[in-house]
Amino acid sequence: MSDKPAEDPSSTPEVPDELWEQFVRANEQAAPKEPSARARMVTDRLRQQEARGELPEGWRTGPARQEKKRGRAVWKALGVLLAVAVAVVAIKPSLLPGDPFGSGSGTADEATETLPAETAAPTGPPDAAAPGTPTLDDPFAGSPAKRWADGEAGIVVPKAKAVGAQSAAKVEQTLELTRKLLVESNLDKATLRGETPTAALNLLDPEQDVRSELKEALSRPSKDNDPLTMFSRFDPDEVRLVGDVVKVRGRMTFKEGKHASVAVHADYTFVYPVVRTDGTTEVTRTIVRRVLDVEIPDPAKYRATAGKLTVLRRDESAGNSSCDVDDGYLHPEFPSSQPTGASPSGPTRDPYDRSEDIRDDKDCGTVSRT
Fold first, then answer.
1. Which of 329, 312, 148, 154 is nearest to 231 (CA)?
2. Of 370, 327, 362, residue with least CA distance to 194
3. Beta strands 149-150; 247-256: pairing state
4. CA distances (Å), 70 to each of 53, 63, 82, in order?
5. What share of the chain is helix, strand, coil (3-state, %, to 5)?
């Protein structure tokens, strides 16, 4: 048995507080375990010093740590903004300038988006369209009409309201009949194929000479009595329409008429893509603009038929149709063929220009584009 005296606990060297603090800090993130009495005492003292602001910089409350917290807050905010931006761009990449992804969805979408309805006379011709040649799959390529409305959607009837002694219901009736006349005369498939436009004729007042004149023009067309002044017609043995879409742009207005009526003014341009019936695939376009003034006179005061239109004006201008061919049909010219009618004698004009009224002169001119 050893005679070595027992070690006096009071003689065991005490761990300095600084080292113990380092030990506590190093093990703060360790797996949780029951702290010793010594650890609890030191931790309590450190918390008390922290509350009094007595701890040295660099431990929890120092400027470096505060700056770090601020930095984390800034990066967190930037992260949220970045996430929102990514989500928005994912929904609509065209918001990025220059189309960096090469999708072509920016300016391409805007270039083919349908134009809003025309509400006033344009101040000039439409801008040049994106380059392109019409094809069977894309018959309006290279035309400003590519952004025009399709068919009947382009004939927008204004909201009816009472004018003068005419009720809103009377105005609405006249507007709707005018719309039907435009559709039956310029968009109906049978009419475009050269058939008799019976539905359109039935909208006209039989008491007026215009109806009988148009019937005569359809059966025996001539230079002085041409059905094309009211109807768009193509020779079915010569050409056919490409697809089912005719592009339309224009506007309709109304005012109090002179014959106890509502006077409606319509100004519309129709663009027809066509191809020969001989099996070739070359596509061209004929552009027809029409200006029409109609009304429904009061049959109690004037010689008129209730619910039938009286035509006060009917003017048309056809772009890209053979000159001086008076057979009652439009005859489109194709780039690969020589003109079949007389040489153009009028000025060069833009058939898409709707900024001016149809000219009084009826000389057949050259179109600047089709």
1. 329
2. 327
3. antiparallel
4. 20, 10, 18
5. 30, 15, 50
pTM beyond 0.85: no
CA distance 40 to 61: 20
**Count of positions (residues) in the chain:** 370
pLDDT tens digits, residue range 332-349? 999 998 665 556 666 899
How far is residue 19 CA from its own chain's centroid?
Answer: 75
DSSP-derived letter for residue 52 is: H
Query: Encoding tokens for residue 153?
Result: 């959607």
Structure token digits, residue 286: 């004929």
Q: Is 204 helix (H, G, I), strand (E, B) or coil?
A: strand
Please check whether residue 331 is in contact with residue 103, taking contact to mean a CB–CB distance below 8 angstroms: no
Give the tens place of pLDDT for each residue, 20-76.
566 556 555 444 455 566 556 656 766 776 666 665 554 444 454 455 555 566 556
Three-state secondary structure readout of 266-324: EEEEEEEEEEECCCCCCEEEEEEEEEEEEECCCCCCCCCCCCCEEEEEEEEEEECCCEC
- Token pair of 336 as six digits: 């690969």
For residue 235, the tally of other CB atoms under 10 A from its CB is 17
Residue with tokens 């010569």, as numbered in its chain = 238
The Cα 115–Cα 117 span in angstroms is 6
Cβ-proximal residues to 139 (8 Å cutoff; 6+ apart), any chain: 242, 243, 245, 273, 283, 285
Q: How far apart are the first and last CA of the chain?
A: 123
- For residue 20, the tally of other CB atoms under 10 A from its CB is 17
